[in-house]
């Protein structure tokens, strides 16, 4: 199943409720929430308090992308704030598998992300244990960057590995994605598409989301 996940990082922070409503009305089912700690990445965004506040605005699926060091310290806070899926970075955990188990202990969906320079093979031992894998298509830290083309191959490597083992996993891609390049990612095997600038900075988010879904439907996994 294909999902479009607008990243709130590109929204107008002075009008969050209206911004969330705008992308929900435009046909997005997920809301991607980028939490940055100023240590794992050189940027600081928002935390559980803000997520808890916007939880009242929408029933969209809250896809919380934690770009924080040793995220196991804060999982309970994001559970209470209303997350539906929690993603931690492979590079930020001493023991990613134990963090996945911790997330699952709250009956929450768990995902692990890899930054562009991290080999996707590191996810192989985790794949049977996680609900979603996130392949970063830019260096984590900022919205509005250009997609790094070399990351696309990682998506197809992971999709093939999963299919060969009969594992039906969600593969999310994040960074520099728009209606113009989404086909390259879906044909590589991605099915959850994060887009910040392409959706929130558009005056016609409905059209952009429609174009993304259309391009994805015409370009399924090639094998
Ligand atoms: C980057 C974040 C992304 C970012 C995507 O660290 O994880 O989710 O907001 O923004 P765009 O789509 O503008 O590249
Ligand atoms: Zn993200």
Secondary-structure map with pairings?
Layout: E1 3-6, H1 16-25, E2 30-36, H2 48-54, E3 61-67, H3 75-81, E4 85-89, H4 96-105, E5 109-114, E6 132-136, H5 152-164, E7 170-174, H6 182-188, E8 192-195, H7 197-200, H8 205-218
Parallel strand pairs: 1-8, 2-3, 3-4, 4-5, 5-6, 6-7, 7-8
Helix pairs in contact: 2-3, 5-6, 6-8
Describe this structure in words.
- This protein is of the alpha/beta class and 223 residues long.
- The protein has one domain: Aldolase class I (TIM Barrel).
- It has helices at 16-25, 48-54, 75-81, 96-105, 152-164, 182-188, 197-200, 205-218; strands at residues 3-6, 30-36, 61-67, 85-89, 109-114, 132-136, 170-174, 192-195.
- The radius of gyration is 16 Å and the shape is globular.
- The two termini are 17 Å apart.
- The model has no long low-confidence stretch (mean pLDDT 98).
- Bound molecules: D-xylitol-5-phosphate and zinc ion.
- Residues 7, 9-10, 32, 34, 65, 138, 140-145, 174-177, 194-198 line the site of D-xylitol-5-phosphate.
Quick summary:
The protein is of the alpha/beta class and 223 residues long. The chain is built from 8 helices and 8 strands; from the N terminus they run βαβαβαβαββαβαβαα.
Features:
single chain; 223 residues; TIM Barrel; 8 strands; 32% helix
CATH topology heading: TIM Barrel
H/E topology pattern: EHEHEHEHEEHEHEHH
Helix content: 25-40%
CATH superfamily: Aldolase class I
How would you write the strand order of the largest sheet?
Answer: 1-8-7-6-5-4-3-2
> Which structural category do the helix and sheet elements fall into?
alpha/beta
